[in-house]
Structures are given as C-alpha cells and as structure tokens.
Amino acid sequence: MTNSDWKASYQDNLLGVFGQPQTCFTHGQGTRVWDTDGKEYLDLLGGIAVNALGYAHPEIVKTISEQASRFTHVSNFFTTPQQVEAAQAVKRICANGWGSEVQAEIASQARVLFVNSGTEANEAALKMALAAKPGGRAIALKGAFHGRTLGSLSLTYKAPYREPFAPFVGPTEFVAATVAEIEAVDPEGVSAIFLEPLQGEAGVIPLAPELLAAARELADRAGALLVFDEVQTGMGRCGKWLAHQGICHDGKEIIPDVVTLAKGLGAGVPVGACVAMNERAASALKPGSHGTTFGGNPLVSLVVTRTINLMEELDLPAHASAVGDAWMQAITDAQIPGIKETRGQGLLRALVLEKNIAPQVAKALFKAGFIVNAPAANIIRLAPPLIIELSEALTLIPALKNTLKQIEKDLGKGEQL
Ligand SMILES: *Cc1c(COP(=O)(O)O)cnc(C)c1O
Predict the structure, then answer these.
(1) pLDDT value at position 415?
(2) CA distance 224 to 188
(3) Is residue 199 within 6 Å of ligand 1 at its C-beta?
C-alpha cells in the first residue's frame, strides 16, 4: 500500500477526531522518523513532548522486552517491585531542585498514583481536591489546557473544546493569568486551583513567579489544593525536572499540593502520575474512592524507572536547557524575516510569527522534512526529543528562512494559502 492508500484507509476505519493525518509513519531512530514513502523527518515536536529519549532508544527497547518476558499486568489488587521503584523514582525527581528541608518533607510525605494519561492524572487531582474540601469550585486560568475527559475538560479554557459538552459536573471559574485577577478571587468555596507553570497549548507562555505565589496564597486562604499540571512541562522538558522547581517568591519556596505528570514520563509508553506532595493531599482519597485497572502496571513502571535513571545519567534537563538556549539565540541572531520573537524554556519553545500564518509554515516545514506544530495562528511550537544535539536543531534555521520567504512571496502574489 502507498502512503495515500494508508491515509485513505485511515479515513474509512478510524474515527475522525484527529482530522486527516499528515502521513503514515513506519519507524524511527533517535530524533528521526520515516514514513511509508521512505521519506525522513527530523522530529522537532517529539510526539508532542512525549519522546524525550527519541525513537527506539536501545535501553527502552531492552526494558520493554525484559519486562514483557516476566509479565506486563497484574491488577492493582497487587503490587510489584517495578511499581514501588517507579514511585520512588518519581518522588526523587519531584523533590529535585529544592533545599534539603523541602526535599526531606517530600520524601516522607509525597505519594504517587500512576494512571494512563495526562487527563487522567488531572481527573485524579480534581477528585483529590474535592475529597479534601468537598463541594467547592475549581479555579483555572484563561488559556489553560488540562485535558479532554469531562473533569479535566471542565478546567480547559478553549471554547470549541469545552462548550459543546457543558454543563460540567463541577463549576470552574476561569481567571486571567495575572496576579491582580488571582488576588481578586473570592476564596469562599474554592476547592482546587489548577495551573500549568508554563502554559503549553496557550502558546508556550511561562508564568511569572509572582503569579505562582499568588495562586499558592489563594489556595492557603481557601484551604484548597494547589495543582501544578506539569504534564507537558515536566520530565526535564523545561530545563529542570519540573518547571516550577526552585522558584521562590520573597524568599519562600512555592510548592504545590499536587503535581500531575504524563507526556515525557514513559518515553512513549502511555503513563501518567498524580503526585500528592504533602500529607493532606496524600490522605484525601481513601481506599475505594478512586482506582484504575491498568494504572502503574509493571511494564510502564519499569519503563518509568529506566527513563528517569537514563535521563539522570545523561543529565538531560541540563542538556535541554543548554541546547534550547543556544538554539533560540541562533534563531534570534539569524534575524529571520517574519519571526517576531522566541519564548519558552529548555526544549519547550515557541516561535512567535509576525503574521497569522503558523499553520501554513508548519505545513511547509513538514514538506521540507521537519515536524513542528502550530498551537495558535501565529505560534510555532518546538518540543523535540531531549537527546537532540544543537547541530541537528540548527538545521531548522535555513528551512525556516526558505519557508517564510516562499510564503511571503505567495502572499504577495495574492495566492490562497
Ligand atoms: C497534553 C496535556 C494534557 C492531557 O494529556 P493527555 O495524555 O492527552 O490526556 C493535560 N495537561 C497538559 C498541560 C497537557 O499538555
């Protein structure tokens, strides 16, 4: 079958929620992936910030095969050494970047619930907050993305995602991502405050430390749980294990009550985690009040542990920070016409375009063999595997120049894009 045969057959057999797939892939290696036409792509999106170790990493290949030969599933009536060790590894990275006192607190109090996706991690966090303080409403930020299942969707801002499915089980109040708006929230009846320390889907927008501090204060005043959704920003993506780590305000650490993880957590196997960071959050959900059949099975658990170990050995958060900074500096220095600025942290970056042509740019780059995406009309998002070398990342620059020049030319001719 040809590439277009596969795409046609996709339309006939799969539900249409993702639209027309751009191509049909066969395999990958490192930062590269190939389609059924044999065409090679440099993946600068990492399967949407998932493939932190790239494709077919030999250690992950070995890990999956090793665990498959023991067992892949036992149910949560039981545990396995793999599951316990994965929770230890997750707690270790959640404590990273803080002073020894905070680290000791997290080590003794934090507890991990493994689930299967980002949205499920946020569902669990929402239930945790409602169990800790029943009956209240949630606060989320304008621009927020927390997932697509109904609980998480109630916290997701974009109207076309939300509105067809309203009303939701619990009410959410959306506030602008400013200190003033957060301070103005009436703490009465607030159970949960959700935020992404760097808003991904909104266009890669880092939040100021003062804003995180205002959210912490609001949660304390309300007796609500503060949830940091690090599904996209976590796992070294932003140059630290978690994007909020080490951020202080007026000399005080800003520690959330709950952290949610997924995307990069399992190097491509589906796994999420809802981490209760303190005793109050950890004791909110009682036996029987939540559950999952697949969550934390020994296969994904061993992959989580090995992914974290490998990322520690390779010091990938620091690598992401160094490569990301040098890459954006080179793009800025190249003064490419049509690019207004860059923003983001580590290897979660956005190119802000002068015009609303990001979908066309992404499409043209794809033709040229580069995978990126356009979360907004003027934003190109870059989230490559964290193993990427600067030399590879820099090959985007000439392609960007050509692409933007060609699109400008076509626009000048009045062509329909
Ligand atoms: C991707 C994402 C989610 C949802 O994760 P799924 O695994 O797709 O359910 C939630 N929050 C943030 C910040 C995300 O980027």
Answers:
(1) 66
(2) 10
(3) no
Look at residue 231 in the predicted model and tell me its pLDDT: 98
CA–CA separation, 2 and 6 (whole Å): 6
3-state secondary structure of 263: helix
Both tokens assigned to 328: 């954006």
Contact 90, 261 (CB under 8 A): yes
In whole angstroms, give the CA distance from residue 355 to residue 337: 11
Q: Where are the beta strands (DSSP E) in 207-255?
A: 225-229, 248-249, 252-253
Decide whether any atom of ligand 1 lies within 6 Å of the 231 Cβ.
Answer: yes
146 alpha carbon to ligand 1 midpoint, in Å?
6
Ligand 1 atom with the smallest distance to the CA of 199 is 13
Whether pLDDT at 305 is above 80: yes
At 210, list the tokens. Answer: 């003062």
Q: Is the CB–ligand 1 distance for residue 262 below 6 Å? A: yes
Strands 258-261 and 225-229: parallel
Per-residue pLDDT tens over the stretch 28-58: 999 999 999 999 999 999 999 999 999 999 9
Q: What is the pLDDT of residues 353-404, one digit of tens each?
A: 999 999 999 999 999 999 999 999 999 999 999 999 999 999 999 999 999 9
- Of the candidates 259, 258, 267, the one whose C-alpha atom is nearest the C-alpha of residue 300 is 267
Q: How far is CA 166 from the centre of its chain?
A: 25
Tell me which residue of 367, 297, 342, 229 sits closest to 74, measured CA to CA. Answer: 297
Compute CA distances 14 → 25, 116, 387, whole Å.
Answer: 16, 21, 32
Buried b (16+ CB within 10 A) or exposed e, 4-27: eebbeeeeeeeeeeeeeeebbbee
Cα 146 to Cα 192: distance, rounded to the nearest angstrom? 13
Amino acid at the residue 234: G
- Kindly give the distance from the C-alpha atom of residue 316 to the centroid of ligand 1, in angstroms, as a whole number: 21
Nearest to 257 by CA among 283, 295, 236: 283
